[in-house]
Structures are given as C-alpha cells and as structure tokens.
Amino acid sequence: MSFAPALDAVVAAHAALRARRPLVQALTNTVSTNFMANVLLSAGASPAMVDNPEEAALFAGIADGVLINLGTPTAAQVEAMRLAAAAAEKAGKPWVLDPIAAGGLPWRGGVAAELLQFRPAAVRGNASEIIGLAGLGGGARGVDSSADPAAAVPAARDLLAHAAAVSASGPVDHVVGRVGSRTVLVRIGGGSALLPRVTATGCSLGALTAAYAAVAPDPLTGLVAAHVHFAVAAELAEAVAPRPGSFAAAFLDALDAVDEAVLRERAKIEPAVELA
Ligand SMILES: Nc1ncnc2c1ncn2[C@@H]1O[C@H](COP(=O)(O)OP(=O)(O)OP(=O)(O)O)[C@@H](O)[C@H]1O
Ligand SMILES: Cc1ncsc1CCO
Ligand SMILES: [Mg+2]
C-alpha cells in the first residue's frame, strides 16, 4: 500500500542523511555514550553528548535533532532533559524520547511522562517500555524487554496523543504514526538476534532516529528509515561476525556500508496496515 512510508521514502531519507550529516545532541545513559556516538558517526550523522543543565538548552537550538534517553538519569541530567526538550520544542527541532525502563521504575516513568508535554517527534522503546510509558503495565524487571512488540501496538497508538510517531522494537519492529487522517502500523523485519546481545543497540537506534528525524520529510518516515538502516546493517554484520563482541564492531562497519543498493536488496518493510 502506498499510504505510508515505504522503500523509496527510506532510500530518500538515507540519501538525505548522508548529504546533510545532521548534528545530534544526545542526553543519554552512561552505558551507551561511546557506542552511540560511534553508531551516529558510522551511519552518517554527527554526535555531541551535551547533557548538563548549563548548556543543554542552548545546544538544543544549535543541534539538528535531540535524543533524550532515560537509562541512567541523575537529578542534574533530568533537569538538562527538561530544558533541552523545552528548547527543542520552541526551536522546532525534532527530539526523540527513549523511555528506558519506564514501566518498571516509577520515578523515571514519571519523568518520561512529564517530558511528553514537549511533544517529541518520536518515541522509541522496546515493547515493555512503550507499554509502561502509556501506563498500561509493561512488566519488565530491567532495561530489556519482556513483551512482544505486537502487544505494544495499542500503547504506541495511545502515545500518538503526544508524539508524531512511536516504535516498539524487537524481533519485528512495530512503528505507528499518522498519515493524513489515517493511523498506520508499519512492521519492519530482518535485523539480527545478536542486536539485543550487545548493550546500547536500542539506545543507539533512538539516536539514529533523531538523526533521521532531522532530515526526513516527517517523523514517521524518519522513524521507519532509522529502523530499516539498523536492521539491514545488522544482517550484513551477522554474516561476517556471528558472536556478540565481533558483531558490535562489524555492525559499526555495516552501518557505514549500507547504501541504496543494500537497502533495496535487504529492507523488509511489510505493507502498512491502517489501524482503527
Ligand atoms: N530477535 C531479534 N531479531 C532481530 N532483530 C532484533 C531482535 N531483537 C531486537 N532486535 C533489534 O534490536 C534493536 C534494538 O531493539 P531492542 O528491542 O533490543 O531495544 P532495547 O531493549 O531498547 O535495547 P537496549 O536497551 O539494549 O539499548 C532493534 O533494531 C530491533 O529491531
Ligand atoms: C544496561 C543499561 N542499564 C541502564 S541503561 C542500559 C543500557 C541499555 O538499555
Ligand atoms: Mg535490549
């Protein structure tokens, strides 16, 4: 069906990413910083981890896109997140929320819910986190998902009240957004079971989503393009590195190697479904 972003839109967004090399401000967890910065550099964006309350708002006005990830929040970082999200909204810069462990830890869940007032372009989380953020449960004990992404679709749709597009990642990524008056679900397959064996891959997908949101015509296209770029790169990496440690390095190489031909050959975007 042609009413939602499909392969041609992903190819165009990827070309725009490579042409414009967007500057992404990341306010992220301490586990993810180095890997995330390398993911952005390899994929075709420029990272800057500016996450202190003194500089976060100023930099949100300079950056092309902003990622806010709640993985290891401190009081100071949360203050910076509030300031950056407000500044990004005011400046019309797309920002992405990754509500790590929102369902399992009430304090950060409250912070994530509060940040929704600043209208993220996209929310990206694993299935448990999307369900938790929507206030529908979630069930995970930590940062890894214990839910099937298909079960997160009602939660993702609810979150469209606050964000233009929402994804629940997993073996098949489920992405929802609006196209005109329609609410649509786009499923993206492929990827690698080694991705969840390497920490901060999901976090880095959120950062890549901020990069794509800065160059794509709309947040839904950006969110789909980020997931497809990730999935296709993971397949290339797994083919040469079948265990987690070497896979992490091969994945960075593969993010760089993805081009139009690889996207056209390997992208697994299912036909969009209209949600009631
Ligand atoms: N079994 C799987 N097969 C293929 N791809 C997968 C699988 N599980 C997860 N992925 C992919 O891994 C990436 C990260 O998704 P995941 O759901 O693990 O995020 P996350 O739990 O937020 O990650 P993290 O907290 O480790 O940063 C996504 O691109 C997703 O498509
Ligand atoms: C392991 C871990 N703990 C808090 S954030 C994070 C990174 C993956 O979510
Ligand atoms: Mg994970």
Describe the structure in your own words.
- The protein has 276 residues and is of the alpha/beta class.
- The chain has one domain (7-275): Ribokinase (UDP-N-acetylmuramoyl-L-alanine:D-glutamate ligase, 3-Layer(aba) Sandwich).
- It has eleven helices and nine strands.
- The protein has helices at 7-20, 33-43, 56-62, 75-91, 106-115, 127-133, 153-159, 201-215, 219-240, 244-257, 260-266, and strands at residues 23-27, 46-48, 65-69, 95-98, 122-126, 165-169, 173-179, 182-188, 273-275.
- The protein has a nine-stranded mixed β-sheet with strand order 2-1-3-4-5-6-7-8-9, with helices on both faces.
- Helix 5 links the parallel strand 4 and strand 5.
- Helix 2 (33-43) crosses helix 8.
- The longest helix is centred in the C-terminal third of the chain and has 22 residues, at 219-240.
- The protein starts with 6 loop residues before the first helix and ends with a strand.
- The structure holds adenosine-5'-triphosphate, 2-(4-methyl-thiazol-5-yl)-ethanol and magnesium ion (MG).
- The site of adenosine-5'-triphosphate has 21 residues, from helix 8 and helix 9.
- State which percent range the strand residues make up: 15-25%
Mean pLDDT: 96
Radius of gyration: 17 Å
Question: Can you list the strand order of the major beta sheet?
Answer: 2-1-3-4-5-6-7-8-9
User: What characterizes the major β-sheet?
Assistant: 9 strands, mixed
Give the uncertain stretches in residue-range form: none
Query: Do you know the CATH topology?
Result: UDP-N-acetylmuramoyl-L-alanine:D-glutamate ligase
Assign the CATH architecture. Answer: 3-Layer(aba) Sandwich
For the record, the count of structural domains works out to: 1
- Indicate the structural class: alpha/beta
**Can you write the helix and strand succession as a string?**
HEHEHEHEHEHHEEEHHHHE
Bound molecules: adenosine-5'-triphosphate, 2-(4-methyl-thiazol-5-yl)-ethanol, magnesium ion
The count of DSSP E runs of length 2 or more, i.e. the number of strands, is 9
CATH class: Alpha Beta
Protein name: Hydroxyethylthiazole kinase
Catalytic activity: 5-(2-hydroxyethyl)-4-methylthiazole + ATP = 4-methyl-5-(2-phosphooxyethyl)-thiazole + ADP + H(+)
InterPro entries: Hyethyz_kinase, Ribokinase-like
Family: Belongs to the Thz kinase family.
